[in-house]
Design goal:
The complex is a heterodimer of chains A (about 230) and B (about 625). Chain A is α/β, with parallel strands linked by helices and about 230 residues long. Chain A contains nine helices and five strands, in the order αβββαααβαβαααα. Chain A has a single domain, classed as 2-Layer Sandwich (Nucleotidyltransferase, domain 5), CATH 3.30.420.10. Chain B is about 50% helix and about 15% strand. In chain B, about 45% of the residues are buried. The chains are: A alpha/beta (about 230), B alpha+beta (about 625).
Chain lengths: ~230, ~625
Amino acid sequence: MVTYIDRLFNNRKPRRSATIESLDAVSLDLELTGLDERRDAIVSIGAVKMSGGRILLTDTFYRLVNPKIPLCGPSITIHGITPSDVQASKGIEEVLQELIDFCGDGVIIGHCVDIDLAFLGRETKRLTGRPFRNKSIDTLAVYKWLSDRHYHSDSISLGTNPSLYEIAKHFAIPASVSHNAIMDAYITAQLFQRFIAALACCGVERIGDLLRIGNQGGAIKSGEFSNF
Amino acid sequence: MILDDIVLFLRKVPPFQFLSDGALTSAIRGIASEFYPKGAVITKKDGPGEAYLFVIRKGGAKRSLDYEGQEVLVDYKGEGDVIGYHSLFGEDVPWTDVKAVDDTICYLLRKDQIKKLIDTDGEAKNLFSKSFLHPVTNDAVMELQYKHFTYSCGDKILFNTRVGAVAKRNLSTAPHGISIREAARIMTERHTGSLIFLDAGGAPVGIVTDSDMRDKVVAQGKDVNEPVNTVMSHSLKSVDADEYCYEAVLSMVKNNVHHLIVMKERHLWGILTNHDLMLLQGTSPLAIVKDIEAQSSVNGLIPVSGKINGVYNMLLSDGAKAGNVLRIITEINDRLVRKVITLIEKELGPPPVAYVWIGFGSEGRKEQTFKTDQDNAIIYSDPVNEADAREAQDYFARFSALVRDALFKVGFPPCPANYMASNPMWRQPLKSWKKYAANWTATPTPEAVLNAVTLFDFRAICGEDGLADAFRVHLQSHIADNRLLIGKAASLAIKNAPPIGFLKTFVVEKSGEHKDMLNLKVKGVSPIVDLVRLFALEKGVGTTPTLKRIAALADTHSIVKKYAEELIHAFEFIMLLRIQHQYEKIRNALPPDNFIRPDRLTNLQKRTVKEAFQIISKIQGMVIERYREMIW
């Protein structure tokens, strides 16, 4: 019965009362022509599937996307994708559907995931008329939540909004500052793997609590986890 | 792109490094990675069959078994090691607990994929089964794991073969009422070397073997029409089919039998002979024990005792844990000492009064590694009159001197501090021992405390156990509630501070022959032994082995209750390191010592040693806190 109601009201959503172990997730990263949500476009998409803390290394997604706008300026030097690289690539119309199929109902994991979701949301709305509805978790929010609880011993040195690479280095996760969508998605997945273990130490075991932490970060105080 | 890095790693790890590109691609189909924080369970013994083979990418894990409620370490796995070969080839249920000893990342390879590969690719099958039987060590793994402890390549057979896999199923049984002739006829008919006799209810009551027929019947000209129970051996020892073979070895050595009946679900299931075990494994502790028993002179024992080092080799290459090595070596050494004593007794004639030969120090705690100094004494029955007393004195003086010399011959050097029965002080009637105990405890001078504490580790090796028990009771009654004595013992236990420096580096010897080295005995083993002995003194625990003391104190002693697991782990690890180090020395024809070079340890070893020192330091701190006013 509970499952039924859950399904009825939380279509496309993980069961919030289930354990994190059973979480279906997709670690995702986009490379963009820039950060302006109205003008810029997606140039590549990388994603790796996860099952709880397990990274499914062969279940991956990587596409270059023809942004249909001139690739120029500083972004090229960041992600290293040149106009000739994307010329022959498919446009977002085709790639988006493949990505939506790949993600299924998985919760999207990303570092500063809101930026990526804004772009995906915009494209989904434009192309299908519907919003991009997957739940998401921001690894930066989780990182901050853990920092507030002094989980990382010397996190102070990392500053208030550490980059993906800075945190990865802190956890000794091999990461070159490559800004390659699939590698960044993989690094994010590995970070998330560590965070799940750290959260378990703080008593966070349910998907619902993880979602709250991953969306609000520091706003939740420990000891106020829900009783799903 | 993600896979590139993983393939690169697997290309350095056997057996994957030898697979063809195509085979490797199939092997890693569906590969996943998982992170295990330090202490997390990777696989559980008897847990659900794992769908994966685990390759450690980073960190380390220990495999352990539960033995009589204690965790028995099987081995450590480091980077590049594979966990789960077993399940690939046979039983699907994991046989050990595997726990992360550090933050650990594993690659999980789907077993179904690998099985498929093995089934279709003969070469891959060869590689995988070779790795399973003879853990191939490549340079990287060697460096990580056994950097300086290269043993001859033995199979870890005793420790991962279950009795059920070796035991013979087709055992012969017969009702126990039959005659010797009838029994012999059945044995001949069935081509069997042993016959088990069952009572009316079908329960096994005895066994007759070929050698019984030879020794007890033919050699003694016994009437073959007599009932077979007059020659059968009644002491039937059993072992469960699910136990590992080293448990069976231990039982055979301990009980001096060559046959064990094998039970499964409490039913007679098969029979295991030492021959089966010897076939399984070249050198056996049993063969050595048998050799010891067969000697009729001290000189005959000398070559036998030399073979004991081979047992270390076997146990170490089997991946035995320190606790188990000590148990088996103690059993063998005890037998050697008993044999020496029996031979000397035979030479001198029977003693005028009953006595018990006791050992203390590491021998008393059953923690002897390579031949260590003699630490022994004699307690004998109180003589009834002056003449008897003189006779006893005279006899034990000659006796103890002969035993000392014989023990030296078979490899136990005399104690430089003269803690030996050959010293008149250490061979006395029970009443004098009681007086000793009273004096030591009444006026705890440094020497008296040392004596009391040393004797506290004693145990009976040979002779009248009753005398030893009487002294034990007496000693403990004097120690109980003697705060002054226990306080002095506490000062002793904190004397050696663990060698962890300010910057978490090892504090090593500053100068001399052992410059830059770490004394594992003084800095590692002794502090733990001393601390645990202190706690045993506090609670009046009579058992002597450190690991057993910890177990006995785990429920009653507040500190042990909290740190039992850490203490056991620390003790086991340092002890194993010490045994490995000493064995390595002996293999190179050098005298065994206790000095290791910390910089030659692998990172995992270094970290584990540091953790062990940290726990010692922590507990010493607690002892200082507790005895503050008595120590200074």
